[in-house]
């Protein structure tokens, strides 16, 4: 049968025992991310391919003019995740897995519910025409921690995205092609960064950015979405090993520090891609 | 805790809820409904602590039927597979009734052949009701049944009533026979799983139960699908007994041979269809006459 | 008059050198990215591997193709792409060598959703199959041509050029039998135009096949090639 | 002008103090009411303020789908529904609403780590949750109701899961946030703990909360959970007494 | 000697059954050459609840197309362009090879090719009522009642015949105040068709050591058909309007285009005779 393979007991204990000695199977420290590479604009504005270790996620942002819901002056931000069977034999085409639901909901909460994007700024004519921003997320390679990788890809793509300029004269709405007028970036209030923790040994050991192997062994996860203003945007833990409140508070602090590091990397990638454009 | 617990202490119920420490004494053994957290024995269900010697268990007030070897159960065939029937008896898994564990028509001491496997559906098919006894358990915890006695087998001429299994206590008599008035008989099979079969009674109570030297005709008749002729009077009697059992269950009283009869008497002044709605009144009246 | 195409090419029959990346993915048995200009496709191959019971074929491998667009959900166009690619693969993979197994290929468009993407997808898939070491009868390669509004034949058009085209042709050729492995043409065109399209496509495909070869040789890498002797 | 979440006198819009829970009411075994016929093995109905929730538990029973069978433990399936009439505006339910799927998945993984799943190999436990009236805090109400329903069904669990929410509005941490307050942009943490170990097993935050306030809010939610445990335990015992008599 | 009756033989050895026909250059359904066609029969206007309809039979294949006109808002990018939305359905009742439920790959790809052809055949700007506000959208549902091959050919034929049969209200008034369109109750104005595309499907078969074309293969004949090519030709101008095909030698592809052009003229006359 296709699908995910089970792990043997000895593999599990190997991972856990190594952690007890303070060593991760890939040699990282507990609070260390895998190598992060952010490639922006491979396919024009608003595309970001992010490689977190070997986990690879492609995010693409597109925009179209649509009619808003009844008399609203807000635009739309839509997320679409696709867990391609390309990424792992465990993903089956056309079936919405629980994992996919959780990842797409987390992204929506991290970016949309935390109001990272100014949706009012997407309005062209109130009640008539607004921009609908669509973020398509493609998981291409699954080596663990899809969520963090997808979140970085989504937010990087949104930061990189430019929409065509629009002028409104009376009833007349003109959308200017990109070569005619400089396109406009989205107005983004803050940069939410998602940090996933994996717990082992009944919650005694914790790591960030778990690999696929670690994800299969872990006793539960804890996801923190935080920005550089030290604002918690979303948190999620469901089941798994129980944690003390003190441990949770400690994790949020670690997450805030990690988020600052990741934000720096995203900004670096943005600057670099802007320089190439010039 | 004293191992010699007095009668009075027994009567006092020790009620615990999940996560509550039952005892911190390490001499006790862990039974159903508990787990060990370090030295402590902790409850996993909301229920009453039971102790048999050093074995401590917590019995939940309500739970799915889990059964023990020797229990009489009533169940419904849910699937016919090779060499076995699967029987839904309201437990956490369907039970299995092996072809080898039933009496076959044509004499008991016959070899089971492949043609018997092909004809299983002619004996018992999906939806048929049976009474049976739990013979044992498989590795995964599902029960194995047998019907190798003429008192077990296919059920006919009556209807099914289901009640919480906790209301049926293990006793000597699960095949009950009531003579409600001269010539009016009703049989009740009280399955330990809470499935109760109420049917037209046999005229002679002695005929039920284990009949020695069973004849071949009896064995053939075992799997017939035809109801006996039933009079309207008998139908009403079956309905009344069924409703009485439901009324007892509604009031969470134990369902026993004697109590069914008492409730039946108490119900006589009430229209059959109103029995369940007036359960409290009837049960109270029945208890009075206890 | 010097012709200037929107991306700077000076000849209508000029093929942009395709960019290829071999095995970018870690989980798949084989993977490749193939791009004409900004139109790129990533393909992954799993197999031959255990097949689902209901898909089992007694005498050959089951071939499954899944195409996902960059933006939005897949619809009827993606089904047509899947069918086209699957039919190509069924004629090209030595599927009778692997009965009762399945070969799955997944294509994801990386950019752009014009017809050009079908050519990229076919080429990326063939490269990914080679990367996965799946036995093939021959190498097939695909190119796209258009007849533009001034009835000029344009090879390997950009997305803008396709928008204004009178007709669009996607041709796939086999390098052994020189047969057409697949053709998908839309729009309105004459028989003469059609004939010129497949002549141009055939020779262009040969140069794509040369790119395949180069890509695979690079994979072998380090090992010095035989041209020393 | 936005009104304050907590007034200068220290009251909230529904008259509660910041650290006060809403009125709690529950009934165990609603659906089966002690007599047979309804098929559910356990049931609980819970009211927390105006949020009302009904939970039915089925099983452990023969799995409805062959593919769902696990050879070493039970499978747990959770269905989470919000009635279309439950809030002010009628909403037609989307069949595959991701929010509902997410809720179901959160509750599933929470209880999977508490129920002794390995005691029931090859069988299935189904939890059906219906929010009948919605006034904020549907997640924690659903978790509390599910705990009661599972106990009512006699399914063994290591411990209670008790849940409570806490938010932060104009400088005050507030307990058990209602719908009006949720609408006032109050960030809300839903917290679930297992009271025996005191550890957090469920945590959910959906709107922005500054890290400096986090500890205060989470501590309040934890206290709320402890209160909730006493309330639930009392409820379980009194309903058991009623049954034992 | 043991003999099989023809039906049993076909069932047990489908490939050998058809190969023997092939060797003699005749077809199981009575056609006398590999390159002969089943003549289509076209009836139009049989469904009165539609703006246009057509029923087409090709041998045992029967397909029905109904067209309903509705008013919609044009896309912001092309404010004067109307829509034709075609959908091909091969339900389970038309052949045992199709399963109930969501349309499969074959059905969807036929749908897509038919749609791409019809887009260039209909004058979309002729469907405009009021620029940027209201246009006609023609919903064309193509349903197979029985299937014996020639899916693409029959579906496109039914669609084009139904489009020729389609009539729209003669007067339409757009009211800018409330954004509604009032239309007269008569249905008298035909829609403008720029082309009359006719699809011809060929199978590629191996016979006598070489490969050759087999025109209009039936579903049964799929057993020996290696790959297929459909050529769409405009019956009015003789221009090509699409080719969709699999593995085929170059010379056979050229031959198929020539044959399809001839056939398009014949079929065009049949469609032209319908109203």
From TrEMBL, chain A:
Which Pfam family, just one, is annotated for this protein?
Answer: RNase_PH_C
Which GO MF term does the entry hold, naming one?
mRNA 3'-UTR AU-rich region binding
Primary site of residence: cytoplasm
Cell location? Cytoplasm; Nucleus, Nucleolus
| This protein's UniProt keywords | Cytoplasm, Exosome, Nucleus, RNA-binding, rRNA processing
Q: What domain of life does the native source organism fall in?
A: Eukaryota
Indicate the segments annotated as coiled coil, or none if absent.
none
Q: Which family does it belong to?
A: Belongs to the RNase PH family.
What is this protein identified as? Answer: Exosome complex component RRP45
TrEMBL record, chain B:
Describe the location of the K Homology domain by residue ranges: 158-203
Occurrences of domain RRP4 S1 (ranges): 64-135
Subcellular location(s): the record lists: Nucleus
Residues in Exosome complex component N-terminal domain copies: 15-51
Major location (coarse): nucleus
Any one Pfam family match given in the protein's UniProt record, by short name:
KH_6
* Keyword check for Cytoplasm: no
Q: Which GO biological process categories is it annotated with?
A: CUT catabolic process; exonucleolytic trimming to generate mature 3'-end of 5.8S rRNA from tricistronic rRNA transcript (SSU-rRNA, 5.8S rRNA, LSU-rRNA); nuclear mRNA surveillance; nuclear polyadenylation-dependent rRNA catabolic process; poly(A)-dependent snoRNA 3'-end processing; TRAMP-dependent tRNA surveillance pathway; U4 snRNA 3'-end processing
GO terms, molecular function: RNA binding
Q: Which InterPro entries match?
A: Exosome_cplx_N_dom (IPR025721), Exosome_RNA_bind1/RRP40/RRP4 (IPR026699), KH_dom_type_1 (IPR004088), KH_dom_type_1_sf (IPR036612), NA-bd_OB-fold (IPR012340), S1_RRP4 (IPR048565)
Determine if Nucleus is one of this entry's keywords. Answer: yes
A single GO CC term, please? cytoplasmic exosome (RNase complex)
Task: Please give the superkingdom of this protein's source.
Answer: Eukaryota
The UniProt keyword set, sorted, is: Exosome, Nucleus, RNA-binding, rRNA processing
Q: Which family does it belong to?
A: Belongs to the RRP4 family.
PANTHER family documented for this protein: EXOSOME COMPLEX COMPONENT RRP4, PNAS-3 RELATED
Q: What is this protein called?
A: Uncharacterized protein
Originating organism: Chytriomyces confervae
UniProtKB/TrEMBL annotation, chain C:
Q: Does the keyword Electron transport apply?
A: no
Give the primary localization class. nucleus
User: Where does this protein have compositionally biased stretches of type Polar residues?
Assistant: 11-22
Which Gene Ontology molecular function entries are recorded, alphabetically? RNA binding
Instruction: Quote the subcellular location field of this record.
Output: Nucleus
Which residue ranges are recorded for the region named Disordered?
1-22
GO cellular component, as recorded: cytoplasmic exosome (RNase complex); nuclear exosome (RNase complex); nucleolus
The Gene Ontology biological process annotation of the record reads: nuclear mRNA surveillance; poly(A)-dependent snoRNA 3'-end processing; rRNA catabolic process; rRNA processing; U4 snRNA 3'-end processing
Entry-linked SUPFAM superfamilies? Ribonuclease PH domain 2-like, Ribosomal protein S5 domain 2-like
Annotated Exoribonuclease phosphorolytic domain ranges read: 14-134, 139-203
Arranged from A to Z, the UniProt key words for this protein are:
Exosome, Nucleus, rRNA processing
Q: Where is the composition biased (Basic and acidic residues)?
A: 1-10
Pfam families attached to this UniProt entry: RNase_PH (PF01138), RNase_PH_C (PF03725)
UniProt keyword Nucleus, yes or no: yes
PANTHER family tied to this protein: EXOSOME COMPLEX COMPONENT (PTHR11953), EXOSOME COMPLEX COMPONENT RRP46 (PTHR11953:SF1)
Family named by the database record: Belongs to the RNase PH family.
Supply the name of the protein.
Answer: Uncharacterized protein
Native source species:
Chytriomyces confervae
From TrEMBL, chain D:
Where the record annotates domain Exoribonuclease phosphorolytic, the positions are 38-156, 159-223
Q: What is its main location?
A: cytoplasm
UniProt key word Cytoplasm: yes
A biological process from GO:
rRNA catabolic process
Location(s) in or outside the cell: Cytoplasm; Nucleus, Nucleolus
Keyword check for Chaperone, yes or no. Answer: no
Entry's Gene Ontology cellular component terms: cytoplasmic exosome (RNase complex); nuclear exosome (RNase complex); nucleolus
- Keywords tagged on the record: Cytoplasm, Exosome
Q: Which InterPro entries match?
A: ExoRNase_PH_dom1, ExoRNase_PH_dom2, ExoRNase_PH_dom2_sf, PNPase/RNase_PH_dom_sf, Ribosomal_Su5_D2-typ_SF, RNase_PH
Gene Ontology molecular function: RNA binding
Name a Pfam family for this protein: RNase_PH
What family, per the record?
A: Belongs to the RNase PH family.
Subunit structure, as described in the record: Component of the RNA exosome complex. Specifically part of the catalytically inactive RNA exosome core complex (Exo-9) which may associate with the catalytic subunits RRP6 and DIS3 in cytoplasmic- and nuclear-specific RNA exosome complex forms. Exo-9 is formed by a hexameric base ring of RNase PH domain-containing subunits and a cap ring consisting of CSL4, RRP4 and RRP40.
Name the record gives this protein: Ribosomal RNA-processing protein 41
Q: Which organism is it from?
A: Chytriomyces confervae
